Amino acid sequence: MWHSATVRLSLGFVALAILCLGVADLSITAHDPWHELGRLLQGLVQPDVSDVDHLWVALLRTLAFAFVGVGLGATAGFLLALIFHSRLVRSLCAFVRAIHELFWALIFLQFFGLHPLTGVLAIALPYAGVFAKVFAEILEETDPLPEQVLPAGSGRLSTLAYTRLHEAWPHLVSYTSYRLECGLRSSAVLGFVGMPTLGFYLESAFAQGHYDTVGALLLLFYAVIASLRLWVRPLLVPVYLVVAPFCLGSGLPIVWSNVSRFFTEDIVPSPLRHGEGVSGLMSWLGDIMTSEALPGIWHTLVLSQIALVLTGLLALMFYPLVSRHFFQGRSWHGRWALSGRRQAGAGRPGNRLTHLLGHGLLVVMRSTPEYLLAFILLQLWGPSMLPAVVALAIHNGGIIAHLVGRRSNEVRLRPDAPHGLVRYAYELTPRLYGPFLALLFYRWEIIMRETAILGILGITTLGFYVDSAIQEIRFDRAMVLILITALLNIGVDVLARHLRARLRLRHTANCEP
Amino acid sequence: MSTLALTDAVADYGQQRVLGPLNLTLQRGERVALVGKSGAGKSSLLAVMYQQWRGRGAALMPQELGLVPSLSVFHNVYMGALASHPTWYNLVTLAKPFRRDVAAIRPLLAQLSIEEKCWAMAGELSGGQRQRVAAARAIHQGGEVLLADEPVSALDGPQSEALMVELTQAYPTAVLAMHDVELALRFTDRVIGIADGGIALDAPSARLTAQDLLPLY
């Protein structure tokens, strides 16, 4: 076992995370964290739905921003996917998706202000980058032969529509609907920077200590995500897309002088603005590096390393919850009764309640945006890295556990395979470890991007310095720091891709951001 | 256009040369059988011919057929005529076929005894049915020269003969890679034997018997 490169790499990651634990600040500083948690739980059990108007508006805006943002992003991404072989397009997409939607929102806020365009573009732009990459991959995976046998002169659009597009359509649709769910989370979180979505109402409810309103907002959000499949129907989607732009709210008008000022003054590095030349610029950059970028990068790396390993642990712990090899659904009843080898613990047949609870737990874990979770935990535990680590691990662990569990259902075990812990340790986990690592490496970049963004909440990762620079109206510094964050994400993405290739881990497009 | 010619044609698979260099001239109206054991280079030769002559009205029916499994039989056959219609017409057809195209394609499917499958998905058909759909597409496409790789391999006796008749009638010139030597001799007038990526035999079908082709296998 120790000879396996995968195992050695995993242990290396765990060791690194343990070292990081030594330097990370993981204290709970809140006065009475359990009391706060109790109040929140009470709010969830007894939500206050009396303020119907506010709830309704929050929900409507969240949906509208998600639909318009994801709709624009998917359209642009599809067009870009058609020219994705161009190096320029590929790099451009890698760049826009390396910057988190909240950073984009912070940038657009500076010149569009609280206009709906800020929220729409903050979602559409990074999503377009992701869509372009994944759509291009999906189109690439289709059979090239039908296209080759078409008569010469069939026309590009006809060729595309009849061959690759038609074959890939179900995959494109299912990926887009998955991204719509992500878009709803992004849209909700945009409220934290001032967009009129769920996060905005959540933040003010927290600030006023209205935990029953918090409970109502959270439950509403889960209900919307859980029921997505029921109301997002192929025939209804065009209707939603047409109606959504009219439901964004009016916001505040765009002041066009701000737009030009932003590009001609605000983001121009201050030494250049004051004519201090290249030497001034260098010392300015040096100052940013030592006082902000390096500490920010350090904390981002430390935090994301711990979060990555904890995510992996949670995923490995929780995937049996949705695996038929541990908790069977009804259809497996007969077979199990026949085999007559019932055992206690895991592997108990037909345990529908556990099965349902397991599914429910993972749904809640993965549909709570990490930013929202970190925000809540910060309110409960006080500022330190702990809320961020836990939030990242819960959200991403839930996603990976869900995907690994689904993958485990494709595994066929021999009829006399062992049960319980032995089945977990000998039969399933070794078989699923490769896909598990591939998924984890896929999410590494996402965890890193989220770690940076959680700085806005006051944890000293890169986002913290970006946010402070913006607070101090020093957009030139903010832009440099955002660029550094983007480069860091691209770097991690390249490293993860390299590791996946070296360990020959299979690649799956559907687990992208 | 009276002749089609290949000069010093080669095909490489990675670092390895799998075909040629070879020279070959086809007269208009010739029906050529490509024979030889599997891996000899028949498919590579067809691929080279297609690459060279696609713009001159060549149609390809590859061994893997190249159907779109998620499209109906009708649409797969219609694809043979994508180049003869404007884009808007093709896109409308994707949603709702025009009556005159259905009227053109249905009899073709009837001749190949798959008319009842007209609106079935190509991916849901059996191997023999799919092969006939690909043949129907090639016939619907029409043109100067048909390049077909094992066009009747999944069909039984009478069906394969019927399809050979249709295919050879649809194109003035045809190059057919075949492993059924008897059938090849009956439906073609020239046999080209391929061995080790080169031409090992080139003779009129009338002068050959199945026995003469045995050394090639």
From TrEMBL, chain A:
InterPro entries the UniProt entry points to: MetI-like_sf
Entries under Gene3D superfamilies matching the protein: MetI-like
Domain of life of the native organism: Bacteria
Primary localisation category: membrane
Record localization: Cell membrane
GO cellular component: plasma membrane
Alphabetic keyword roster: Cell membrane, Membrane, Transmembrane, Transmembrane helix, Transport
Membrane topology note: Multi-pass membrane protein
Spans traversing the lipid bilayer: 54-82, 214-232, 239-256, 297-322, 446-466, 478-496
UniProt-recorded name of the protein: Phosphonate transport system permease protein
Species in which this protein is naturally found: Onishia taeanensis
Taxonomic path: Bacteria, Pseudomonadati, Pseudomonadota, Gammaproteobacteria, Oceanospirillales
TrEMBL record, chain B:
GO MF term set: ATP binding; ATP hydrolysis activity; transmembrane transporter activity
ABC transporter domain ranges (all copies): 4-213
Annotated GO CC locations: plasma membrane
Name by which UniProt lists this protein: Phosphonate transport system ATP-binding protein
Key word Nucleotide-binding present: yes
Statement: the UniProt record of this protein carries the keyword Plastid: no
Database matches in PROSITE patterns: ABC_TRANSPORTER_2
One Pfam family from the record: ABC_tran
SMART domains: AAA
Alphabetized UniProt keyword annotations: ATP-binding, Nucleotide-binding
Organism: Onishia taeanensis
